[in-house]
Amino acid sequence: MIAYLFRRLLNLIPTFFIATFLAWIVIELAPGDFASQFAFDQLDPGRAERIRQSLGLDQPWYVRYFYWLRNVVTGFDFGTSMTTRGDVTNLIWPRMVNSLTLLLPATILTYLIAIPIGVYSAVRKYSLGDRALTIFSLIGLAIPNFFLALLVVAFAVQFFQANGYLLIPVGGMTSQNHAQLSAWGQFADRLWHLIAPMLVIALSGLASISRFMRGEMLEVLGQDYIRTARAKGLSERVVNYKHGLRNAVIVIVATIGGVLPSLISGAGSVEYVLRWPGITPLFLRSIYAQDIYVIMALLTILTLLLMIGNLISDIALALIDPRIRY
Fold first, then answer.
1. Residues 177 and 30 in one domain
2. Is residue 82 part of a domain?
3. Which among 211, 10, 224 has a CA at the least distance from the CA of 125?
4. Could you give the CA distance from residue 100 to residue 89 in angstroms, rounded to a whole number?
5. Quick one: what percent of the chain has pLDDT higher than 70?
6. CATH code of the domain covering residue 255
7. Residue 42 banded pLDDT, cuts 50, 70, 90
8. Residues 20, 111 within the same domain
9. Is 104 in the same domain as 71?
10. In 181-194, which positions are buried (b, 16+ CB within 10 angstroms) versus exposed (e)?
11. 72-84 mean pLDDT
12. Can you tell me the distance from the alpha carbon of 171 to that of 164, in angstroms, rounded to the nearest whole number?
């Protein structure tokens, strides 16, 4: 295992360089740059060129990539944002924390609910409960999370108009009087604002993971060793949960590699619709403004987390399944 970990860590180095290099090329292939938005300034026609020179955008792309990569490797410095003129790390760090605050409990809630639902549907295949959960899952798979977020907003507005008070907030992560609240009040206020986006994200992922778990559980329960366990007189509970679930959950563990970067990559359109100040709104604004250093910082961090997540998945699989050896 130690030798395997050492080889994997060595493989991360060229993977990182190739991934960042390709990401930089893709960004450079987009027409224009940050200074292009000032090209049609009639009062100051030369403004765009001066901005391009001051930001170093007049240099060849490979030269700028080399300088950026050198700063990242030597000092973990992602550069200065072209939009805010501030340090990129200080700009994205609070957004990453906000996205983590939303996605971590939503992910935990999703798996805590989805795995038991999948096991229940597999053990009671074609029962009334299984059919009802199947219909629920198909509806969940068919509804995009942004549309579900819009439904939550519509429900909150209708409830407020009918009752005169807000059941759940559907905008931002704090109230206007957040600073005047006590420490406990601030904590409760954040939890209150967390309800709507967390439920939307959890319900969006619940359908797919529960169906995935059901399929894996059904496949395991059809194996020969499960029939042998039943023939030996073991109870259904022992067969299903000790032998069946333990092997079916291995595939779920293998997906940990994708969960780690998703915890800080933002909740996509949910953050945008519900005005949660996470990574996604910042990422979209940076793409629109072609703020290359902010974009590259986010892509680099997500690449590192994806590589680390895959490594953690392999280690977890070896710990759970004794048949896996590296």
1. no
2. no
3. 211
4. 16
5. 94
6. 1.10.3720.10
7. low
8. no
9. no
10. eeeeeeeebeeebb
11. 89
12. 17
Q: Is residue 210 assigned to a domain? A: yes
- Full residue range of the structural domain in which residue 118 is found: 92-320
- Condensed to tens digits (0 to 9), the pLDDT of residues 147-159 reads 888 988 899 889 8
Torsion over CA: 320, 321, 325, 326 (sign): negative
- Across 136-152, average pLDDT: 85
Residue type, 285: R
Number of Cβ within a 10 Å radius of residue 6: 10
- Same domain (yes/no): 35, 113: no
Whether residue 37 is found in the same domain as residue 103: no
Looking at the structure, do residues 29 and 97 belong to the same domain, yes or no? Answer: no
User: Which residues contact residue 129 at a Cβ distance below 8 angstroms, ignoring those fewer than 6 apart?
Assistant: 120, 121
